[in-house]
Amino acid sequence: MTVAGVPSAPSARSPWLTASGWRGLFRDRPTIPLLALLAALVILSELVRPGIVNLNWGGVMLRTAVPLAILAGCQVLTMLTGGIDLSVGAVASMSGFLVATLVGDYGLVVALLVAMGIAAIAGLLSGIGVGVFRVHPLIMTLGMGLVVFGFANAWQLVMVQTGGGTPAELRWIGSGSLFGIVPHSLLVFVPLAALILFSLRRTGYGRLLYAVGDNPIAARLSGARSWQVLMLLYAISAVMASIAGFLLSGLTNVASVTLADPYVLPSVAAAVIGGTSIMGGRGGYGGAIVGALILVVISSLLSSLGYPEAVRQILFGSIIVGVAAAYTRVTAES
Amino acid sequence: MTATTGSLGGSRSRPTDAVMDWLRHNAWTLGLVAFLVLLLAFTKAIQPSYGPPGIQGLASAVLPLALAAVGQAIVVISGGIDLSIGSIMALTSVVSAALMKTYPDLAIAIVIGVLVLGIVIGAVNGGLVVVTRVPDIVVTLAMSFVWAGCALLVLKTPGGAAAVWLKDLVKGPILVEWLPRAAVVMVVLVAVIWIPLRRTRLGLSIYAIGSNQLAAFRSGVAVGRTKISAYAVMGLFAALGGLSLTASTGIGSPVPGGYTLQSVAAIVLGGVSLAGGRGGVFGPIVAVIILQLIRSDMTFLNVNTNLATVANGVILIGVVMFGSLIQMRRARA
To answer: Which chain B residues touch A317 with a CB distance below 8 Å?
Structure first.
């Protein structure tokens, strides 16, 4: 075990056969074992309920996972810098609700832009708090979540006469699908995910996120202005949350100020399962997407077995601890 | 650090210095208490009829969150954080309510059993943190699902019952009408559990591992055991919070209220550093009372309750920003 970790040791065996080879795989490409876990869960679903797994089912899974995967993206980006964004629930709900109430008077485009603009302002304020005033991200985003939720609630009382509902366009993109299989929400998600994956690997800003999270002092000494990085980061995260909110309100055909609240903790869970360290500096978005899919498949598997909500939650929690412990074990080696 | 600079001139023994030291160490809590007094005066000014019933209602309303905040403060002082405290409260609350409905005669044994359950749950959380070496925030976040699920297994919908003496314990006055019973319960619990504990080796170790884990380890502190103990004490206070929920509502609800995040907010307002090792439990208790009082003041002023939520958020952010600004200035000076 100790020898295998030394790179200079000449080894005749293929790295695929050694324990450390597997560990390295798990450490460097967490997406592959996660995909295996996902496949195992799909097979398990088919075994316990023969005939349930088909293209249609896959479409439903994808459609349900997309908003969660976007919110998990918010957590991945903020966690890379050692932060967390607990305001995503309030921001996403607020965005979906705002669009539903504004679309009647101002049209869809204006409504979407207004919602995203307000989200961006909230995110920017969080970023200023975290980056400039060094407020702990947990507290800053928690407080910002309260502020956004409170304003959305006050707005709800103003708009109570007007009513309004989720616009048809959002329902089309959130819950519609091509031939009943390929969800329309992929039209939003695929470009967004590609942009995040590309930015994290290939752009300076993406590398800055890792640098700020991995070693803030080293990053500062190398000339990174971490407060600017963080300000922009929380604004980006809030805009992504608002996009997730649009899709979610389209998916559920509900516009409520608490719509996305149950997604906050699972979004953190998806990011953690996906191999992103909450301490910052390590992780990526690919794993989080698979993590979101895993959570959705588990929850569908358990509800198809007729297990009550209680058992589902207990298993959810145990799986998160188990996967996180496995990560910590393999990454502690290096 | 800063306290020693004033006493370099050999004037260490002067009693005024000791007082100044004490003031400086507790400046944040004292500020909170002063603010609370001002707030009470303000409440009396805008609502002249605010009297003993108001104070009693305030004390009963803050008791569950105050107990949760004490538990959270202890874990955060030890360098961790527990995001499952609301779920633990829900679980202990439903267990006590369900059992008291079935066995109304065994209420005292049930209360003791639930407290032990809380300690065990806390120790499980702490043990998982120590054994898996996964960050506290992730472990306790995941365990919040587990404990909430267990609560749902016990009771699907709010139900159960509470013993009459337990209900009487948190409501009404004691001795004089200005002294709410819930406040006395709170003070007694903290005085019996935390104050003696703080003076022991374990209490010192809790502060030590929160302040600098490596230094504590090198000084011979059993880091793992101390951490598990801190979580166990948190579990005890969470169970007390759950029991006070059962006592004040008369039933148990399996759905965790917003106590987890509120407790984190309260301890930060109360001067506990999220980095660990600094703070106490009295600041958080005062902070909980202040937050609740602001909420009722807004009701008296006929302010939209949603704006009260906004105010809570703004106060939280504002106070923490203020605190970190002070720290930054001190670091620069």
So the answer is: 142-147, 149
